[in-house]
């Protein structure tokens, strides 16, 4: 993201890619303008939250008119640096990692996995889903060669911190962590953790409480 996103709340920043995706859908459907209420219905986000998020960027719309769809698509594309592709490395090619390799990120946005690492790979590397996979011994060499600053981490929990320490030393700036480990990193490195088991438990909790509320 460019500098403007650094001045807005983190919760708003996390919603920006969602706004961009849904606005693209509206644009692809030929819609010229959209209201916060229409966005709210499509995204299941409160309209007041949408207006508040947009207000951080100045006057993006006009009262009584709504928002110009193509203008917002262009605005969020620039804000999210969608015109510049970001190369990503995948660390760990187990079941989840293999699924990531098979998913073509670049068809939907500007992120693409260009290399991966797995202990089962030989020193010469191998190819999976069209992506080269190397042994972790080549981590530093390949990360620097490809100029990688962002990685997806899907390794076993017992080695997650060790691998993270190596990535920090190499100069990686961002880690999308799919392990349940709360990684320790310096302030110069940003980590986003997605614990699938926690997300599932949270979903189950809300479903059960929705049922209880409906029975009251």
Automatic annotation (TrEMBL):
It holds the Pfam family CoA_binding. Keywords: Cytoplasm, DNA-binding, NAD, Repressor, Transcription, Transcription regulation. One of its GO terms (biological process) is response to redox state. One of its GO terms (molecular function) is DNA binding. Residues 18-57 bind DNA. Belongs to the transcriptional regulatory Rex family. HAMAP family: Rex. Homodimer. PANTHER family: REDOX-SENSING TRANSCRIPTIONAL REPRESSOR REX, REDOX-SENSING TRANSCRIPTIONAL REPRESSOR REX 1. This is Redox-sensing transcriptional repressor Rex. It comes from Filibacter tadaridae. The lineage of its organism: Bacteria, Bacillati, Bacillota, Bacilli, Bacillales. The gene is rex.
